[in-house]
């Protein structure tokens, strides 16, 4: 890549606010590839790839809600690095990698990916949290989240909520919220519930948001009768270094090179 895909104003917004929305980044036909693959996996028309987790919503898993279909019961597909359709068409998408490279440099690794489904009829909230909690390597500035709306995302169906500028703070302690039903590892940053500068991020299908791993963000309930789906990948510079004891996840996931070269002694 030679020229940056970001304008100076866009980069300034990210640096100041900790996130940046790029409207209409992906075309409808690109979204359909991921959506069809998601439905094929959930409805078992194709087998789940090795190491992939098809995660049921906690209310469905505990019998508090009876799902009318497989789709109504699934909260997310996590770790799709061995699925060639999802991984190649999203994580390795050249234009997406151009954007990531503008933030992190030329040597990039995929460190976590998931396709999120927020069905109707369940709680489905994710409290305000910081993604850096889940990554056992540093520096934080060398990590970037990418998140694309597959369906329209609104405050009514649980769009992302961010606390602008919170990326300039520290990684907070996290704990399980005092809710009756909480999906696995949906922990919240301690004290973040007091944050008042929350901003909802309504997004149309194909809109892309990128954000810093220390940015406080979360999402609310889906109060509609439809679904709210999104696809996400976290990237890190291949120069990041593993630090023992930083994360409850540990080294459980593979960190896969998607652009550039490896760096000896790094992740």
Outline:
The protein is of the alpha+beta class.
Helices and strands, with pairings:
Elements: H1 8-17, E1 19-22, H2 28-42, E2 53-56, H3 58-61, H4 70-73, E3 74-78, H5 84-91, H6 94-104, E4 108-118, E5 126-129, E6 137-138, E7 143-149, E8 160-162, E9 174-175, E10 188-189, E11 199-201, E12 208-211, E13 217-219, E14 228-237, E15 241-242, E16 256-259
Antiparallel strand pairs: 1-12, 2-3, 3-4, 4-14, 4-16, 5-13, 6-15, 7-12, 7-14, 8-11, 8-13, 9-10
Give your account of this protein's structure.
With 267 residues, the protein is α+β, with helices and mostly antiparallel strands. The protein has a single domain (8-259), classed as q2cbj1_9rhob like domain (Jelly Rolls, Sandwich), CATH 2.60.120. Helices cover 19% and strands 26% of the residues. It is built from six helices and 16 strands. It has helices spanning 8-17, 28-42, 58-61, 70-73, 84-91, 94-104, and strands at 19-22, 53-56, 74-78, 108-118, 126-129, 137-138, 143-149, 160-162, 174-175, 188-189, 199-201, 208-211, 217-219, 228-237, 241-242, 256-259. Strands 1, 2, 3, 4, 7, 12, 14 and 16 form an eight-stranded antiparallel β-sheet that branches. It has a four-stranded antiparallel β-sheet with strand order 5-13-8-11, with no helix packed on it. The protein has a two-stranded antiparallel sheet with strand order 6-15. Helix 2 (28-42) runs antiparallel to helix 5 (84-91). The protein is globular.
């Amino acid at each position: 890549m030679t020229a940056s895909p970001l304008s100076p104003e866009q980069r300034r917004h990210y640096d100041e606010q900790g996130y940046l929305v790029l409207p209409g980044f992906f075309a409808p036909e690109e979204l359909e590839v991921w959506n069809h693959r998601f439905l094929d996996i959930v409805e078992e028309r194709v087998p789940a790839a090795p190491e992939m987790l098809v995660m049921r919503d906690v209310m469905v898993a505990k019998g508090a809600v009876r799902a009318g279909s497989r789709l109504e019961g699934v909260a997310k597909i996590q770790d799709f690095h061995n699925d060639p359709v999802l991984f190649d068409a999203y994580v390795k998408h050249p234009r997406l990698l151009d954007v990531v490279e503008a933030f992190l440099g030329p040597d990039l690794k995929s460190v976590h990916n998931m396709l999120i489904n927020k069905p109707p009829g369940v709680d489905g909230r994710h409290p305000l949290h910081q993604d850096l909690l889940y990554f056992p390597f540093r520096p934080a500035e060398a990590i970037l989240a990418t998140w694309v709306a597959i369906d329209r995302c609104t405050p009514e169906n649980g769009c992302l909520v961010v606390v602008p500028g919170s990326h300039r703070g520290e990684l907070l302690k996290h704990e399980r919220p005092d809710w009756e039903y909480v999906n696995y590892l949906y922990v919240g940053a301690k004290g973040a519930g007091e944050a008042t500068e929350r901003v909802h991020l309504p997004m149309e299908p194909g809109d892309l948001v990128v954000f810093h791993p220390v940015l406080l963000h979360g999402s609310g309930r889906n109060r509609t009768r439809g679904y709210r789906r999104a696809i996400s990948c976290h990237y890190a510079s291949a120069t990041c270094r593993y630090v023992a004891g930083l994360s409850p996840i540990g080294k459980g996931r593979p960190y896969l090179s998607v652009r550039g070269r490896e760096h000896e002694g790094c992740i």
